[in-house]
């Protein structure tokens, strides 16, 4: 049976490094409710990421739902259709009305030039996404938010460790929400976090993620059970020691793809803006079917037939799903629609072996017009 290569594969530490943490959990009998590993990871992540106030969650989706609750967002929220469905689902779970605006075709992030014209008296917040970890135009977005007095909550699920001009991208906006899902740059099996700008907001977030309890007998808000347990936190602590090493491995894989596809008509990769310290989280490849000789979907199916399970991030658009088709702007996002039909994300994880990456490259170039010449260039004819 041929090896199956997927876009992401969870990075796990050697079991012997994790076992001492499990033994301490068993000995203490503290499994959740803000235990010692939870508190230690919260502090360690805040220091590593360059943020002051961080609250851990059981997953990124519950963190998104809670972030909107924490800021008491109501009415309409402007967002992007080019994201994972959890972004917009968090709005519906809060009884909010998504308003979709198109993306910048270069960064795949929400286009600030279109946000202002979508604002109505019912607009209370903007929910942008740092797509593929590429930062949004945070300065332009904040300027609009300040003018109209609305909140900004960033979906930063892809943006672990990303910096803009030396500053953590997580420090922009009112809140930033992270995901530590198994497929992310940093993972705790499942997990997430909310980053906020002041102690009072963190206190409210921490109440909300624990059913609204302020103390043993006082409930101050209709909260949820969003707490990260000790097993997840322990894995996170073990993972922290290897994040830098894994980032370097991702960078090497990314650059090898770029070298292999340089000069191949119809292939281009999403550009990372100047001044950004990126995390090499994805390899989003744009396929121009006329120049390349095959459509993105054809490439997707042909790679799958060879055991390479690439992903069409993000397809379909959120605005194409039944519950969102009637939303304002759902049919007016031409750039997002085009991106959803052109982009394919290739296998990208730190333990991807060079021989396996060569197989992915070979499989893709075999599909190209003039495949013979490109395969010769990489010695794979």
From TrEMBL:
One Pfam family per UniProt: DegT_DnrJ_EryC1
InterPro entries the record matches: DegT/StrS_aminotransferase (IPR000653), PyrdxlP-dep_Trfase (IPR015424), PyrdxlP-dep_Trfase_major (IPR015421), PyrdxlP-dep_Trfase_small (IPR015422)
PANTHER family linked: PROTEIN RV3402C, TRANSAMINASE
GO molecular function terms listed in the Swiss-Prot or TrEMBL record: pyridoxal phosphate binding; transaminase activity
PTM-bearing positions, type N6-(pyridoxal phosphate)lysine: 184
Domain of life: Bacteria
Keywords in alphabetical order: Pyridoxal phosphate
Family: Belongs to the DegT/DnrJ/EryC1 family.
Protein's recorded name: dTDP-4-amino-4,6-dideoxygalactose transaminase
Keyword Nucleus among UniProt keywords: no
Tagged with keyword Magnesium: no
GO biological process, one term: polysaccharide biosynthetic process
Positions of the catalytic residues: 184
């Amino acid at each position: 049976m041929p090896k199956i290569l997927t876009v992401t594969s969870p990075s796990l530490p050697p079991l012997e490094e994790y076992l001492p943490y499990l033994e301490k959990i068993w000995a203490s009998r503290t499994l959740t409710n803000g235990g010692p590993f939870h508190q230690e990871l919260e502090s360690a992540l805040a220091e590593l990421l360059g943020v002051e106030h961080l609250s851990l969650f059981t997953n990124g989706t519950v963190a998104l739902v809670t972030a909107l609750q924490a800021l008491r967002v109501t009415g309409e929220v402007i967002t992007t259709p080019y994201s994972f469905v959890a972004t917009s689902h968090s709005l519906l779970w809060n009884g909010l009305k998504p308003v979709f605006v198109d993306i910048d075709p270069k960064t795949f992030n929400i286009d600030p030039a279109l946000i202002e014209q979508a604002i109505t008296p019912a607009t209370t917040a903007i929910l942008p996404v740092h797509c593929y970890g590429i930062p949004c135009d945070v300065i332009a977005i904040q300027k609009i938010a300040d003018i109209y007095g609305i909140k900004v909550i960033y979906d930063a699920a892809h943006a672990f460790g990303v910096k803009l001009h030396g500053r953590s991208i997580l420090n922009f906006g009112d809140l930033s929400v992270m995901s530590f899902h198994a497929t992310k740059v940093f993972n705790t099996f499942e997990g997430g976090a909310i980053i906020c700008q002041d102690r009072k907001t963190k206190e409210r977030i921490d109440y909300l993620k624990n059913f609204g309890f302020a103390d043993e007998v006082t409930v101050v808000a209709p909260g949820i059970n969003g707490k990260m347990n000790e097993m997840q936190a322990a894995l996170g602590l073990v993972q922290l020691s290897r994040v830098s090493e894994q980032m370097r491995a991702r960078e090497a894989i990314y650059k090898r793809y770029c070298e292999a596809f340089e000069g191949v008509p119809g292939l281009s990769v999403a550009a990372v803006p100047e001044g950004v310290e990126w995390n090499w989280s994805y390899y989003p490849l744009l396929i121009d079917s006329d120049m390349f000789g095959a459509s993105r979907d054809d490439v997707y199916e042909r790679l799958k037939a060879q055991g390479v399970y690439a992903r069409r991030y993000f397809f379909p658009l959120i605005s194409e799903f039944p519950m969102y088709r009637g939303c304002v702007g759902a049919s007016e996002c031409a750039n997002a629609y085009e991106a959803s039909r052109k982009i394919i994300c290739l296998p990208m994880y730190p333990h991807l072996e060079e021989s396996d990456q060569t197989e992915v490259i070979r499989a893709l170039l075999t599909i190209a017009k003039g495949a013979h010449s490109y395969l010769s260039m990489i010695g794979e004819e």
